[in-house]
Automatic annotation (TrEMBL):
Organism, scientific name: Sellimonas caecigallum
UniProt lineage: Bacteria, Bacillati, Bacillota, Clostridia, Lachnospirales
Domain Transcription regulator AsnC/Lrp ligand binding: 65-138
Record PANTHER family: LEUCINE-RESPONSIVE REGULATORY PROTEIN, TRANSCRIPTIONAL REGULATOR AZLB
Pfam families per the UniProt record, alphabetical: AsnC_trans_reg
Name of the protein: Lrp/AsnC family transcriptional regulator
Top-rank taxon, per record: Bacteria
Amino acid sequence: MRTEILRYMEKNSRVNLEELAVLLGTDEVTIANEIAQMEKEKIICGYHTLIDWDKTGEESVTALIEVRVTPQRDQGFDRIAERIYNFPEVNSVYLISGAYDFLIILEGKTLKEISRFVSEKLAPIDSVMTTATHFILKKYKDHGTILTPKAKAERVLVMP
């Protein structure tokens, strides 16, 4: 039942306990207790609202920054990751496979602000060897939600 609750909540964090209870064939109290327990166990770590910032008129830039590092002895990547994720500008830090070690998601008001973060805060960290910054130009789908409507097919009426 936990997996079903989590999958439902992943798509809609504004959970309707009555609807979820009906879908899972149980009662609202059981669902509420399961959710409370998963919050206590930190299985559910928080709740977020997905906002299409492009539609708000607010200027912002999202960047994906690949970072290659030299892991520290006896601490691997964890200490470096902690140092990076403690910057308030950083939204996410992932340890990844491939040519780079970390993928950092960063938000700022301008390209210059992002560039300044990379050059003045990230690059000077002792273990950081190289970085590559990629700016998100347009979001089509985020967290499973399609943000741009499908293009309507334009059909021309042909008269015989």
